[in-house]
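About this split. The held-out portion is used to measure sequence recovery: a designer receives only the structure tokens and must propose an amino acid at every position. Recovery is the fraction of positions where the proposal matches the reference. Here is one held-out target exactly as it appears in the evaluation file.
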């Protein structure tokens, strides 16, 4: 049994884990400090979902986005306020055509094989040329990594057989799932960065 199934079956421990992770995230620069989030709302289809927070835990990231855009009804469902629901990200993403699909600290928990499967499960939900993947995670430099990143890398290896990845490693992983990197966003306030990616239209052609 892996750690996540253990927490799922033991609700008290699972809730404690979620609270701890929320506290850890609260001490770090948020994703709104790294990524130009205003563009998501400004360029989103008015009758479609704006943001889907995949594996969002207790919702600290989506809540920050809602606070920054109180009048925009950030929603996983067209036309409504933000809502949460249970979903296994190893199964196909049910919310189609959102402006962005956001994953914070998700893929580093998994091996390349399983991380690729998670990415592939989002693929059919993405609208080519419109939807973005936003992967908020550590990007390990090839040499002289930040101590925080090294600690996370070791922790992921020991606890869940996961890993932190270099930029070239991320690029290869995304490419294997039919995506391509648009830009990598960073902030001097943050150790983690945000990879903005989209469907690779050469691999997933847009039909006219």
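Reference sequence for scoring:
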């Amino acid at each position: 049994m892996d750690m996540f199934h253990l927490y799922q079956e033991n609700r008290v421990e699972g809730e404690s884990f979620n609270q701890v992770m929320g506290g850890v995230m609260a001490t770090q620069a948020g994703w709104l400090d790294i990524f130009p989030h205003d563009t998501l709302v400004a360029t989103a289809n008015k009758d479609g979902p704006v943001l889907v927070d995949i594996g969002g835990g207790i919702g600290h990231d989506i809540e920050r986005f809602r606070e920054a855009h109180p009048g925009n009804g950030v929603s996983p469902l067209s036309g409504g306020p933000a809502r949460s629901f249970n979903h296994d990200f190893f199964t196909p993403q049910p919310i189609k055509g959102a402006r962005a699909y956001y994953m914070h600290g998700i893929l580093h928990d998994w091996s390349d094989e399983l991380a690729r499967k998670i990415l592939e499960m989002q693929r059919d939900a993405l609208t080519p040329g419109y939807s973005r993947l936003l992967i908020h995670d550590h990007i390990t430099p090839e040499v002289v990594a930040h101590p925080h990143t090294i600690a996370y890398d070791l922790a992921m290896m020991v606890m869940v057989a996961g890993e932190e990845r270099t930029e070239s490693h991320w690029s290869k992983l995304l490419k294997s799932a039919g995506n391509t990197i648009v830009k990598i966003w960073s902030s001097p306030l943050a150790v983690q960065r945000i990879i903005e990616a989209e469907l690779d239209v050469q691999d997933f052609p847009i039909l006219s």
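Annotator remark: DSSP finds seven helices and five strands in the chain.
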